[in-house]
Amino acid sequence: MLAASSAKPPGRAMNFLQRLMGNITFLRGALRALRMTTPIAKNPTRVFPHVIEELATRYGDAPALIGSRETLSYRQLGKRMNQYARWALAQKLAKGETVCLLMPNRPEFLAIWTGIIHAGGAAALLNTNLVGPSLAHCIDVVEPKHIIVAAELLSAYEAIEPLLKTKPKLWLHGPGVRERIDIAIEAFSEASLEPGERRALTIEDRALYIYTSGTTGMPKAANINHYRVMLATHGFAGVMATTSSDRMYDCLPMYHTAGGLVATGALLVNGGSVVIRERFSAREFWDDIVRNDCTLFQYIGELCRYLAHTPPHPNETKHKLRLVCGNGLRPDIWEEFKNRFRIPMILEFYAATEGNVSMFNFEGKPGAIGRIPWFLAHRFPTALVQFDVEKEQPVRNAQGFCVACAPDEVGEAVGKIINDAARPAARFEGYARKAEDDKKILRDVFERGDAWFRTGDLMRKDKDGFFYFVDRIGDTFRWKGENVSTSEVAEAICRYPAVVEANVYGVPVAGKDGRAGMAALVAEKEFDISGLREHLVKCLPDYARPMFIRIRGSIEVTSTFKQKKVDLVKQGFDPAATTDEIYFNDPERRTFVRLDPPLYARIAKGEVRI
Q: CB 414: neighbour CB atoms within 10 A?
């Protein structure tokens, strides 16, 4: 009796064992990352171009970057980097001065920016999809001395040249009548830089400008110093446990952190190869993966959604993938994606290019973006604070401090800024325009004088410590006195048969407080809207069910597959503003009905109950 009474109930014992195994798995991943990143601060004069030099000597003719236009071995990458570094020195580029780079994905892209930073300059990696005033803004904000433009993008640059306040010297890469950098660098030696040519660099010096890819407003140029370059490349090498036998498939834009630093550097630092594709193609994806013997690929969540909605492909399970790593894989397709394509391991993470908040889901918990276990919380101080959606500001108590969220309560994720030379990862390096820094810093959060980085993301944390992404601030809206998460509504809609994609947002309705929910859908021919309302009644509370449905042929996204909402919100539910079909969730008839101009007019006048 005594032995029986002292034994743990089977459920408690199983939960304890699961937590223990989870902590062991997490600790192994964390230790791999720490082993790779701890030496960075201890060797402050060893920067990424020096790593490339070491790799060129160690791995020689082994393939480093494999593209459709060219392939660079480690030795060739090192030589090309040296040529670009000498070109920059010949232009008398001062330490910290900027060169803009406008080029599609290809091996040469990495060779160019590593050469520029090797010479002490800073490389601004421009979004190749930008045109007009947005492109001009991104160039002017970093005040470049030079700009390197791929031949196929020259027309986009020439169109905004008259708009530029700065006047960088143009260098064309590829055929054309402008001065060509690919020809100019041939005059420079491929040999390692001599001591007299080398600029004194440390991990504190600026290396890159990487632009945030927001869905509203102009992009911001985030300061990326050499430490952050080393942290991204070496940290993820540990996270993914990369080896010289690995091959990464990289179809994400190389002007962003995920495609340009993580997917490339994490393989290079351990001698692996990177297969670079200019852009994502769902039709050719699995053929590429199998033909190139890829063992890894870097994803963005919507990329996985596109693949999950493609017809069966003969190569989709014939791959050698051991792990996929990325962010934004939503719960509604996680298991389907993993099981259909036989993915051994999904490693979801959360991080901000310019921020100090990061977490990893080493355990593969479906839907979670990661966790920070108790034994690492002191190294990565992160919190969720209660958030007022209407004011778009954190909630303050009577003492003026922020209020920490309870388990499963939604709040904004913030990371404590610690200006300690020994802990550079906890700092916030800011943007090219200092005026933008204060918008991202939350002060007097839990005590007077403290400062925390604002991620701009709403999350919740469960009782086991796993974090889940809920929404971007500004996307969540209020209706009937409740907060509506656009991402959670979209997930529910996408579980309905024949829905391919859903973009959810709030629209104003005359005479009503808050915003009514609306969803733009991409659907297959088999889509039957008559059953959608019943499905949503089962999935969502009344206030979260969209009042309006818009059927579209496609949904516009940013270069990193983030859905664009601004124009959709402006157009609202007016059927005269679009040729798309719009339906109204009629509470009287309890079904979706086609919205025509007379019905729209009645709703606008407040004559219809919503």
A: 28
Q: Is 176 left (phi over 0), alpha (psi -120 to 50) or beta?
A: left
Band (217; pLDDT cuts 50, 70, 90): low
> What is the bridge-based pairing of β-strands 323-327 and 273-276?
unpaired
CA 193/CA 269 separation, integer angstroms: 20
Which of 417, 446, 474 corresponds to the end of one domain? 474
117 within 8 A of 140, measured Cβ to Cβ? no
- The b/e string for 339-369 (b: 16+ C-beta within 10 A; e otherwise) is eebebeebbbbbbbbbbbbbbbbbbbbebbb
Residues in Cβ contact with 229 at an 8 Å cutoff, skipping those fewer than 6 apart: 47, 48, 117, 207, 208, 261, 265
How does pLDDT run across 555-583, given as a tens digit for each residue? 888 766 778 888 898 899 999 999 999 99
Put simply, whether the predicted model's pTM sits higher than 0.90 gets the answer no
| 288 within domain boundaries | no
Secondary-structure percent of the chain, ordered helix, strand, coil, rounded to 5: 35, 25, 40
Q: Mark whether 453 and 481 lie in a shared domain.
A: no
Answer for the pair 597, 575: CB distance below 8 angstroms, yes or no. yes
Which of 440, 474, 508 is the C-terminal boundary of a domain? 474
Q: What is the pLDDT of residue 145?
A: 98
Q: Would you call 407 exposed, middle or buried from its count of C-beta atoms within 10 A (0-12, 13-18, 19+)?
A: exposed
Query: What pLDDT is stored for residue 6 in this prediction?
Result: 43
Tally of structural domains, the chain: 2
Residue 43's CB is within 10 A of a number of other CB atoms, namely 12
Alpha helices in 161-225 (DSSP H): 181-184
Over 50: is that where the pLDDT of 180 sits? yes
Q: How many angstroms separate the CA atoms of 468 and 366, rounded?
A: 10
Judge if 505 and 443 occupy the same domain: no
Mean pLDDT for 75-96 is 98
Confidence of residue 10 (pLDDT cuts 50, 70, 90): low
Least confident of 197-201, 509-513, 571-575: 509-513
Expressed as residue numbers, the domain containing 465 is 381-474
pLDDT digit string, tens, across residues 363-416: 999 999 999 988 888 888 999 999 998 888 999 999 999 999 999 999 999 999
455 shares its domain with 482? no
The amino acid occupying position 158 is E
Radius of gyration of the chain (CA): 26
Give the pLDDT score at 330.
87
436: CATH:
2.30.38.10
Asked whether residue 459 falls in the same domain as residue 535, the answer is no
Cβ 286 vs Cβ 297: under 8 Å: no
Whether 211 has a pLDDT exceeding 80, the answer reads yes
Tokens 């009796």 correspond to what residue? 1
Residues 547 and 512 in one domain: yes
**More confident site: 600 or 8:** 600
- Confirm whether 502 is domain-assigned: yes
The two structure tokens encoding residue 342: 């036989």
Q: Does one domain contain both 595 and 498?
A: yes
DSSP labels for 267-324? HHTTT-EEEE-SS--TTTHHHHHHHTT-SEEEEEHHHHHHHHTSPP-TTTTS----EE
Shared domain for 442 and 423, answered yes or no, is: yes
* pLDDT for residue 425: 79
- CA angle 102-96-437, nearest 5°? 80
- Burial annotation 301-326 (CB, 10 A radius, 16+ → b, else e): bbbbbbbbbeeebeebeebebebbbb
